[in-house]
Write a structure and sequence with these properties.
- This protein is of the alpha/beta class.
- It folds into two domains: 147 residues, HUPs (Rossmann fold), CATH 3.40.50.620; 81 residues, 3-Layer(aba) Sandwich (Rossmann fold), CATH 3.40.50.
- It is 40% helix and 20% strand.
- The chain has a six-stranded mixed beta sheet with strand order 3-2-1-4-5-9, sandwiched between helices.
- Helix 1 packs parallel to helix 3 and helix 4 runs parallel beside helix 5.
Amino acid sequence: MLRSILIALDGSPSSLEAAGLGLELARLHQAHVEGLGIVNSAWIQRPEAVPLGGMAYKTALDLKEFEGATERVGAVLDDFRGRAEKADVPSFETREVDGSPLQVIEIEAASHDLIVLGRHSMFDVGGEVYELPLYVDRIIRGEPRPVVLVPDPVPDSGQDASQAPVLVAFDGSPASSRAVHMFALLGLAAGRVTHVVTLDQSSSRRAEETATRACALLRRHGAGRGASRRLERPRGGHSGRNDPGIG
């Protein structure tokens, strides 16, 4: 049973979407929710090579970035409090923490059942060259608690994201099984058209059987319709959807 949700906030568009989804889950499950604002001052003030005489400029720039990050997180927490008061959740709290997001979330997650995180949350780590920010990737891989990864909002989509069709990638592995099970337990499948895609290069029959098992689970948790596809070999491209991910 879901009793407590941790939402990591840094002011990025995806973290604001994470706040909305986390509050909706808290309302549906009547769970406590905590909005955690993270400022990574160690990264902002990290040592860097500067030209001779440039240390004063770097110190002033670091201070300006730190103040900007603190103000942004403060504004995000104020916004979260306002949304939480209107969300009909049983209880909520907000806190601002200074530290490494990986370490902060690892510590705080021990007292929660679920973590909700923006897919493109940066936590003041600039210049990322990866599609998935490094801190986010490490949190997903290392965190023992279930993690819901929420994407940026889709501009002018004209569709309620909570009722949009869902594409589930499922291969029968323990990791994908845990993700699908948590997706179902959270009630995110209820009433929604859900498509299950399975990749199995050895046998189309095995792919069909694997997808069918996932569809059966999702139907028992109220999915509106389960559709399975079998893929016998890897193919390029993606669905183009921008749905939450669970790990």
